[in-house]
Structure formats: structure tokens, C-alpha cells
Amino acid sequence: MRRAIIEGIGGWLPPRVVTNDELAARLDTSDEWIRTRTGIRARHVVSDGMLTSQLAVQAGAKALKSAGTDDVDMVVLATTTPDRPCPATAPEVARQLGLTGRPAFDVMAVCTGFLYALATASGLVAAGTADRVLVVGAEAFSTIVDPGDRSAAAVFGDGAGALLLRAGDDGEPGAVGPVTLGSDGALTDLITVRAGGVEERTRPRPMDDADRYFAMRGREVFGHAVTRMTQAALTAVDQAGWRPEDVDRLVGHQANLRILHAVADQLDLPHDRLVIHLDQVGNTAAASIPLALWHANATGRLRPGDRVALTAFGGGATWGATTLTWPALTTV
């Protein structure tokens, strides 16, 4: 059976680092308050003039170099923070990578975006539509967060991660397993930026300034995230023919350490099987899973042959999960 195989990996973070202490100096918060509630110690943020496309290009270029090829048929970009509302950002990413003429498009499912993009790319490879697809998750989330909102400003960061997929055979290391996805539009207002779309433009009265920033009902999100990430992971593991205890590494969306611990507990997995990267970068939304994979591969946290489960929950509401056996990848 023709399958999508991971053959390259890349990640990139903006140079500017914002520590908890820096946030505490201007907001009603502290390093202890942030760490105990989120597990985050620092986050990277874009500088003036830096675009999501630039983050994506840096990560994508590293994924191509990791695989040792620039022969790519398609680019799929997962992002909640495109350079512009129109057109999509992916064609610009493709152009900067020297891939002008290849099909390129954006996918938006907020923090589940990378898994939606991975499912799309894997399906296109399996169908024979493309032999190689670059899948990127890139976010400049700090640009849509109210800088005076201590809870949001403490949580989110910016960055990009990428995987290069090639056509291969079922059973190869790095083969992307079946991806389970879901959504519930009744939870639209759980995680949202109200302004900037048709809803704002067709309203008889202007929206409030607060509607231009990211808003989240945190307590409700926590419960839905744990439930949906756990259920999706169980489905993906079952589809792979595994049991939960067979999972060597669980890579969840890096939203909050307590959410990741709760999902591991629901799966009866020890916490040392979790891949954790949010302490250094915060919640990078659609970029969080590929960035966590990139960092874990570079540090030896992921080893060839590890059975890996990926799971996420995001705005929409959306959720998803998949599995794979980790391949040998070069980190650059």
C-alpha cells in the first residue's frame, strides 16, 4: 500500500526570547504563577516586520536539507496567523523556497492545524497526486494576543516546524498512520478572534477593540482538550493495532503542562513518555507538534523505532490524532 513517509524534519524559532520574569515586570503576574499553571518558562516572539511566511520558510528549508532534497511537488501550510487574510501564505512560502509553480495552500484548524495538514498531505501522497509534500506549521500568535492580557501573553509564542513526506510503502519507519479528525462548531466561541472576517464587516455596529484579540474560555477548553485528545489518541492507537501501553512517546499539542499530564493519565501512560517542549517555547498553536518533534529528534528524546502517538485539540472546535514509528532523521 502506498503511504506517506516522513523523510525530513525542520524547525525554527524567532531569536527574541521573552522570559516569565520579563512578563512579570509589566503585567500582574510572576514566574511562579506562570510556571505552576502552564509549565512555561519562556517563549519566542517575532520582531517588528517578521512574517509568518518567513518562519515557515526557515523551518521548511531545514526540512528539505534534512531529507537532502529540493524535489517537492506540493506545500501545505497550517497557520492561524497568515501574512494577509487574502491570498493564502503557502504560495509565498513555496516561492521563497524555490518551488514556484508547485501547488501550495493553507489549512486553518488552529492548534489542530498541523494534524489536519498532515492528514491532507498524507492522503494526497497515498492517492498518487504527489510524491513529495512539504507540511509546515507556522504561527506568529503573539501578534493576535492582547499584550495586556496576562493569561494569553504568558501562554503563546511564535515559531515554525516542518515535515517532508515522500511516497513509500506501508510498514516503513516514518509511515504516517491513519489520522483521526473531528470538529464541533457548537464550540466556535470557545477559542476565537471575533474581528477581521465577514462577521465583523457585516455587523450593523462596530465590534469592541477586545474582539480583535484572541479570546479563550480556559476552564472549558481544559476539559474539552483532555477528553478529545484522549479519545482521538485511543482511536488512532487502536487503528494502528497498538495498545495504549505500546506508545513509547506521546506528542500532544503543547498547550499546557497540566493538559498533557491529564491526557497521559487518561491513557495510563507514565509522564516520562510525554514529549515536552512548551517549557521553552510556550503554546505555538499549529507549530507546536512539529516543533516538539524537531526538538525531540535533535535531543535524542525520539529514537528510531519509537512508537509515537500525536494528538491535538484546537479552536473550531477541532481535534485529531495519528501514530507512526519514528524513523532515523537528520536534524539540521
Task: Explain what you see.
The protein is built from eleven helices and 13 strands. The chain folds into two domains: 2-169, 3-Layer(aba) Sandwich (Peroxisomal Thiolase, Chain A, domain 1); 180-325, Thiolase/Chalcone synthase (Peroxisomal Thiolase, Chain A, domain 1). α3 (52-67) packs across α4 and α8 (218-239) packs across α9. β12 (307-314) and β13 form a beta hairpin. It is of the alpha/beta class and 332 residues long. 33% of the residues lie in helices and 23% in strands. Strands 1-7-6-4-5 form a five-stranded mixed β-sheet, with helices on both faces. It has helices spanning 20-24, 31-38, 52-67, 90-96, 113-126, 150-155, 198-201, 218-239, 257-266, 278-281, 288-299; strands at residues 2-12, 17-19, 42-44, 74-78, 104-107, 132-140, 158-169, 180-183, 191-192, 215-216, 249-252, 307-314, 318-325. The active site is at 111, 253, 283. It is found in: Cytoplasm. Its EC number is 2.3.1.180. One of its GO terms (molecular function) is 3-oxoacyl-[acyl-carrier-protein] synthase activity.
CATH architecture label of the largest domain? 3-Layer(aba) Sandwich
Strand order of the largest sheet: 1-7-6-4-5
CATH third-level topology of the largest domain: Peroxisomal Thiolase, Chain A, domain 1
CATH superfamily placement of the largest domain: Thiolase/Chalcone synthase
